[in-house]
Amino acid sequence: MQNIALLILAIGWAAAAAEPTPARKPVLVELFTSEGCSSCPPADALLEKLDHSQPVPEAKIIVLSEHVDYWNQLGWSDPYSSAQLTRRQQSYALRFDTSGPYTPQMVVDGIAQFVGSDGREALSAIGSAAQAEKLNIRLQRSGAGVGITHVEIDAGRRGGGVYLVLAENSASSQVLRGENQGRSLHHVAVVRRMEQIGKWNGRKPFIKDISSGEGDLALRLIVFVQEPGAGRISGAAALEGSQ
Prior knowledge:
about 240 residues, alpha+beta, four-stranded antiparallel β-sheet, about 25% helix, about 40% strand
């Protein structure tokens, strides 16, 4: 009897091992940050940890470090800051009905926002976002000398704006003034370019080839679909840079 029980147990283990591991679902995590903000470095470190360790088993975490420019007049001009990213954060402030933009702020899949250094809240929000149905987005780089990326999105129930992001894998600064004076700061997935490349109703596949300069091949390339009004992000995909 004992041998039979062991055989049944072994068969069960073998069957479990043969079952394919469920694919991780992409979850987009945006961090609004600034090198002029003394509360931001812990959030920057958390974003990097999420990127490198991928701690949520169900999720493929795609991170974006979005540096805003409204801290620039307070002693240190963040070299990675952008008025465009400030406007994006302002859209989220309206969407979430907060008192206004603040740093550090983390936004998960356009459906949850919280203080960007709150690791427990980040894991909870990412885990919840990974349960949602996601659009299937495929990216493929090709071309020599000039980068060409082929984008395909399967038809789905939800459309929206299709966005392209180019982001530096990592970046560092030695801050000379302001609240972080004297600190060496490190960032991951620093957004250098974000643009809408299409409006899509979701009823038919979205297919587009994107051309970029040779230097862009070293950057991460991210494509995501977001519902209007800074709404839910229904799908995302990323390609690592060549360096």
